[in-house]
Write a structure and sequence with these properties.
The complex is a heterodimer.
Chain A: H1 3-12, H2 17-34, H3 39-65, H4 68-102, H5 114-131, H6 134-153, H7 161-165, H8 167-182, H9 192-207, H10 210-229, H11 233-256, H12 258-266, H13 276-303
Helix pairs in contact in A: 1-2, 4-5, 4-8, 4-9, 4-11, 5-6, 6-8, 8-11, 9-10, 11-13
Chain B: H1 3-14, E1 17-18, H2 19-29, H3 38-50, E2 54-62, E3 65-72, H4 74-104
Antiparallel strand pairs in B: 1-3, 2-3
Helix pairs in contact in B: 1-2, 1-4
Classes of the chains: A mainly alpha, B alpha+beta.
Chain lengths: ~300, ~110
């Protein structure tokens, strides 16, 4: 085997299997006849191989998401997610009321407006999910998401870290909105009481003494987790895939933005805002996590004996 | 339509051609300006096949290597016709404006 041929074969191995089977030998002939080598040819093949992989992943993802079982999982995500985001919104109301009661002189006027919109939005989203009215669910989730985005952005120029701290809620609200647009309702999952209980604990957590806040958040998380774990296996894996983008945000912000947050804490006189590249990472990171999780979930299901790829 | 796609369709408009012949044809057509690389060419060929604008005409083995000839389909011919008309319209507009500009500037070219 000639050196250029082995070099080209290694590069062609980067293409997806299906593409290799169709074109690899033919491409090898063209590459050898063309005679060009060097970094430009290598980069061209690497870029084209990446493009082919992205197209294949996107096509298989689109095909996968058309599956009814994904739409049923989306319904569980829509219902559970709307419930938990409603609880988070109500928790903020409860905290504002508590502040008013304890310190009547404190000014909580900035709390109103957008906070009411997001709370009402999530209430409408829950109603839409329970009644199985898609338009109501989508409209409520869209209003909730808008509220979740606007609320921390009011303070972005003064404390950019607030946006980072709330970023997981943006992603969660986006996931719920997407789930609402694609969901197909069968019946309300039997596990809903666990999620409602988790929501109630979350609301109570906002009112609890500071020492109880972390344990109560843990209890809420465990209750929500029980709600998910008890779902039918067919739905459960897909619900976890929907949750992966949200879970990705925590390490992403912690690892990728620790220097950013520390700089702003130490130098309030020269605040740094989130750069376009950092925004791109914040947007692309969760999206890529979803694609990878969906691909892994599909592969994992395909490897379970006695199950089909779609089971 | 991106330029490599347009050029590949144009190359196949005259007769079925294999991959390397397409590269050489495009090089001639563009006066040496565009010399497609294999990765770019096969990305375009794969996409055009998926869109039904080209199809495989025949295969042969030359010096123990697979050589596949591609040809334009009816849909490909229509697509190339539309794109050619679009480019002609744009070129005509550009020409007209350049002519008017030269008249305004009294024959000066810059």
């Amino acid at each position: 085997m000639t050196t250029p041929e082995s070099h080209f074969r290694r590069l062609l191995a980067l293409y997806p299997k299906q593409h290799r089977a169709e074109y690899a030998e033919e491409m090898l002939g063209v590459l050898l006849a063309d005679g060009r080598t060097g970094p430009a040819v290598t980069l061209d093949l690497m870029r084209a191989a990446l493009g082919a992989r992205l197209r294949q992943t996107s096509a298989s993802l689109r095909q996968e998401l058309r599956d009814e079982r994904w739409r049923h999982a989306a319904y569980a995500v829509q219902l559970f997610g709307s419930l938990l985001l409603l609880a988070m919104a109500l928790r903020r109301f409860a905290m504002a009321i508590l502040t008013m009661v304890r310190w009547p002189e404190s000014d909580i006027s900035p709390f109103y407006g957008v906070d009411v919109v997001r709370a009402l939005g999530w209430a409408v989203a829950v109603t839409g999910a329970v009644l199985g009215i898609r338009l109501l669910g989508v409209t409520g989730a869209a209003a909730g998401l808008a509220g979740e985005i606007v609320a921390p952005f009011r303070y972005y120029l003064d404390t950019p870290a607030q946006v980072l701290n709330a970023y997981w809620i943006f992603v969660a609200a986006t996931v719920v909105l997407i789930a609402a647009t694609m969901s197909a309702r069968r019946a309300v999952p039997r596990e809903w009481p666990f999620v409602v209980a988790a929501g109630a604990v979350l609301v109570g957590q906002g009112l609890a003494p500071f020492s109880l806040r972390v344990p109560m958040f843990g209890v809420a998380a465990v209750l929500a987790l029980i709600g998910v774990v008890r779902l039918e296996p067919v739905t459960r894996g897909r619900v976890v895939v929907f949750a992966v983008p949200v879970l990705t945000v925590f390490p992403l912000v912690r690892v990728g933005f620790s220097g950013f947050v520390e700089h702003n804490m130490r130098h309030p006189e020269t605040l740094v805002l989130i750069s376009p590249v950092q925004w791109a990472v914040l947007v692309v990171g969760p999206a890529v996590a979803f694609v990878v999780a969906a691909a892994m979930d599909r592969r994992f299901r395909g490897q379970i004996p006695g199950t089909s790829k779609g089971a | 339509m991106r330029e490599p796609t347009f050029l590949v369709l144009t190359a196949l408009a005259s007769e079925p051609q294999h991959g390397y012949a397409v590269i050489e044809d495009i090089l001639r057509m563009t006066g040496g300006r565009v010399r497609l690389r294999a990765g770019t060419l096969y990305a375009a060929l794969d996409r055009l096949r998926a869109e039904g604008l080209i199809e495989v005409d025949r295969e042969e083995v030359v010096q123990s290597r697979l050589r596949r000839y591609y040809r334009l389909t009816g849909a490909g011919e229509r697509s190339l016709t539309v794109e050619t008309a679009r480019l002609r319209t744009q070129a005509t507009i550009a020409e007209r404006r350049l002519r008017a500009r030269r008249i305004e500037l009294g024959g000066a070219t810059a």
